[in-house]
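Project outcomes to date are best conveyed with an example. Our students and postdoctoral researchers have been running inverse folding experiments weekly, and each run begins with a structure described purely in tokens. The record below, which covers 105 residues, was selected by the lab manager from last quarter's runs and is presented without edits.
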């Protein structure tokens, strides 16, 4: 078993091992802007005790052209129906990375 932080970092950096969801506010941007936002998510490393209190690297935020962007990782079962019983076990967990404008909340 691998720790949640490592699993989240690997997924966020590669987008392999789960699903990546973009909210309508992100999808409305140009393809170049979306590519830039995706790269900022992949390279995010500004984790602090304030934004990562459990050390799982499952949330981040950054400014992009005057807008606040949030990203978060949630943990689902293999059918994407229910929350995972154990996010540290990749054999029973699918990750979903959602990237959104803060205004989308």
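After processing, the design step wrote out the following sequence:
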């Amino acid at each position: 078993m691998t720790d949640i932080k490592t699993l989240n970092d690997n997924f966020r950096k590669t987008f392999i091992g789960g699903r990546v969801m973009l909210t309508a506010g992100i999808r409305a941007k140009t393809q170049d802007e979306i590519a830039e936002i995706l790269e900022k998510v992949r390279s995010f490393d500004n984790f602090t005790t304030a934004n990562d209190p459990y050390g799982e690297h499952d949330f981040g935020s950054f400014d992009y052209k005057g807008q606040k962007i949030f990203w978060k990782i949630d943990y689902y079962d293999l059918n994407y129906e229910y929350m995972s019983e154990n996010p540290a076990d990749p054999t029973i967990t699918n990750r979903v990375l959602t990237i959104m404008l803060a205004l989308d909340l």
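The CA atoms of residues 13 and 96 lie 13 Å apart. Helices lie at 4-14, 24-27, 31-43. The training component of this project remains on track.
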